[in-house]
Amino acid sequence: MKKVYVIFLVCLITLIVSGFFLDVVASDFPTRPIEITSPNAPGGGMDFINTLFKGGVEKILKQPIIITYKTGAAGMTGTLYVKGLKSDGYSLLAASISTFVLPPLTRKTADYTFDDFTPICNLSTTPLALCVKEDSPYKTMREFIQAAKTKKMQYATHGAFTTAHITVEALGKVAGFQPLHIPHKGAAAAMTAALGGHVDLACAATTSFVGPGKLRLLAVASDKRLESHPEVPTLKELDYPNMGQVYYSIWGPKGIPEGIVSTIYEGYVKAFQQNREEMTRIANGQDHTILLLNSKELRKTFQEQHDFYKKFLAEYK
Fold this sequence. Notes:
Blueprint: H1 2-28, E1 34-38, H2 45-61, E2 65-69, H3 76-83, E3 91-95, H4 97-106, E4 117-126, E5 128-133, H5 141-148, E6 154-157, H6 163-175, E7 180-183, H7 187-195, E8 201-204, E9 215-221, E10 246-253, H8 258-274, H9 276-285, E11 289-293, H10 295-315
Parallel strand pairs: 1-2, 1-3, 6-7, 6-8
Antiparallel strand pairs: 3-10, 4-10, 4-11, 5-8, 5-9
Helix pairs in contact: 1-8, 2-8, 4-10
């Protein structure tokens, strides 16, 4: 009986000391630079939103934010890299639905799930844009679809089994055409392929290539039309599958203390509050909507997206 009591006492003391240690660590955090690994190539929506927040968060946390790129395997390279790092808050992951939700649903080599990571916060959301070269003979999405029923169209996205890939494939199944997918390393590369005339259509979460002498926007995968392009219809309006809303978020390895999670989240919230007008203007210019979600809200949102795509993929095999 005495032995059991001693063991219980030791365990209790250990828990108390551990909790105290974690509180101290959280209160001191951060004391050195924070690295955010992006599994996407530079130039896309993820790169844009990370850069937009970077300066403001650095001022709040009083430490540099270092963005590194580990691309490949539809985002799995960078994601798996962060999975194996320390849970101290200094190694974080920039994640989207394409890199975080879809690989475990579509690839046997995706050796990770939500439970392997700590949700930190969501930053923004943006719809997918379906674009053709400005001098393309297709002026509308309906014209493109009609032509695609008689011609084998090629389209570019930022990777296989991404939201963009699944969106166009779903569109083809419902509309009655079968396009040829040409995956690229990043949204910028996909849009550049369309700009160069190497593919008939590009689909990615960016409108930065849309404009005179560049690309024409045919449709967007969102619930409502973009303020910057009010003349462009949504896929929903055209009676086609309306998926493709992209969420850009920050996660970390499993086990990051709640205090550190809160510190990072508050850093992003305060950075936005102090620069709300300017950041909103810049974000809207790229068709991003700032959407700051805390850890629990982020986890819930990505779980809902996971359940949606799991059901969709099962129905469209």
